[in-house]
Amino acid sequence: MRKLKIGFIGCGGIALAHAERLSSLNNVELTAFSDIQAERAKGLAAKYGGEAYLSWREMLKREQLDAVFICLPPFAHEDEVEVAAEKGIHVYIEKPIALDMAKSWSMVRAVEKHGVKSQVGYQMRFSPAAERVKALIDSGAVGRIGLATGSYWCRFIRTDWWIDRSKSGGQIVEQATHLYDILRWLCGDARTVFAFMDRLFWNIDGMSIEDTSGVLIRFKSGAIGLVSSTIGAVPDRWWFKWSIVGSDATLVSDSPEELTVYYASSKPARVETFREQGRDLMLMAEMDFINAILEDRPTRIPIVEGAKTLQLTLAAVKSAEIGRPVDVEYLTEYKPPVSGA
User: Which CATH number goes with the domain that contains 63?
Assistant: First the structure.
């Protein structure tokens, strides 16, 4: 069996999660690790084998890699994707892929020009509820979608780069982006957004991100979306909920593992419930990427999808900043403000 040689750019917490899962696969070999904190790279190399590097450029120069996992915070991206793609190295990159559209489109162009596979870490697309709804929508069972709603609520705070908008992009861009990506996947691309956001719960020195937001979306299909996000909800609870109203069915997911479908064709509405637990969504996204390379097929979440979801979330931030609707497609080089909610 052919084993793909894997390298890591960035060896923080998310890299640890990926390495642990990848090490369980028979068709990969963890070959090299790079991080500006040498101890991190050396730690992973000691645990999984391979070489440790302080410079990712040196790693890509010396190692014969098949794929690289880019596990950097959004502000730390340089030209890793472009350099890897030029060398024919396939790319798995964590979300958000960048903090401005000029950078993200540069990544997309490099991947497409050099024909390498890419995957963005939007693993919620592998959740049981999302997969089931996608199949129902594609089959025509839902009919025309008219309304989509979503909630990403938690009580979460960090006091590092995450609370600095110039480094993370804010909750919508860095965290709730998973929800925006799911709604894009199921309902299609957005045309216009109108957003409000504020800091109403947290008062921390250096904090410039929002802790509460509400976003109205007009999809290209004509459907309307409503998304709310907050990091001010109760501790130890994470709400990741969404609902879709179609002409022939209404779909309600109160967690990634469960779905209720109400069919409009009967009175009272016929109801189906679906629940599946135990999926490792990150592992599924990794395996899809690895198998796409080995089988020479598309991945579920190529880098262009990461760019489009980033474009939607940045448009929401821009709308809240200027106080009026923003056309998503015309947002090309916007960067989030350094301060202010």
Answer: 3.40.50.720
